[in-house]
Write a structure and sequence with these properties.
Number of helices: 9
Structural class: alpha+beta
Strand order of the largest sheet: 2-3-1-4
Oligomer: single chain
Mean pLDDT: 80
Low-confidence stretches: 218-222
Strand content: 15-25%
Largest sheet: 4 strands, antiparallel
Number of strands: 4
Shape: elongated
């Protein structure tokens, strides 16, 4: 079961066995993590076929240096444009691609086992609060847009002292073609129920421009 099914030359039966095993286990893995990963349906379709795709490539170029070089050159000429993925999405792609290597080398048992075990581990670890820390869950990302003319050094300090337990600057960037600044802070509220009152007070300072409060897990895409 855990020996390679490939001999010196790949027979049609061996190839179709690899295809069936990789596609079925890919679909199973995608279904398992779909309960924990928030992504579009198309993402899980891609994960389902990725093990077979990688396995097929390795099957065709295995032992053929010329084919490997040709495939590498064609791959290098292709540009992929996509939105940055979350850690969950990237992990799913890496897991399915790694299992595809096992399938491409003929190790069907290892490929299926890796997808099933990693799918179970991913689901189990996502279900328990092993890595959840209360202090991090309370942290929010506050972004305040201000006009270019406003000196933002210490302008919100009294408001922060009134509503926040802590406020740490997370960066400054220009926006609106340089006509405005966007200030980012990592904050912890004293009382989450006072969030609206704090925003209303901040609006009087920034000229009623945009203010947003987001979970810190979204900080990378928001900044």
């Amino acid at each position: 079961m855990f020996d390679s099914i490939y001999s010196l030359s790949v027979t049609p039966g061996q190839f179709f066995l690899m295809a069936a095993a990789s596609l079925l286990s890919g679909v199973l893995f995608s279904w398992m993590i779909s309960f924990r990963v928030r992504a579009r349906r198309r993402y899980f379709i891609v994960l389902s076929v990725l093990p077979f795709t990688v396995g097929m490539i390795l099957t065709f170029v295995s032992g053929n240096i010329g084919a490997g070089v040709a495939f590498g050159g064609a791959f290098a000429l292709t540009r992929f444009r996509s939105a940055p993925g979350t850690a969950d999405e990237i992990a799913g792609v890496l897991i399915t691609a790694a299992s595809g290597v096992a399938f491409g080398m003929g190790y069907i048992g290892y490929g299926v086992l890796s997808l099933v075990l990693l799918g179970l581990a991913f689901t189990a670890l996502s279900s328990v609060k092993l890595f959840d820390h209360a202090s991090l869950q309370e942290e929010r990302l506050l972004m305040i847009t201000i006009p270019e003319s406003l000196d933002f050094s210490g302008v919100f300090d009294d408001t922060f002292a009134r509503y926040l337990r802590s406020a740490e600057s997370a960066g400054v960037k220009t926006t609106g073609m340089g006509s405005m600044f966007r200030l980012s802070y990592r904050i912890r509220m004293k009382n989450p129920a006072e969030e609206k009152a704090m925003i209303d007070e901040l609006r009087t300072r920034n000229g009623n421009l945009e203010i947003s409060i987001l979970p810190c897990t979204e900080s990378m895409t928001a900044l």
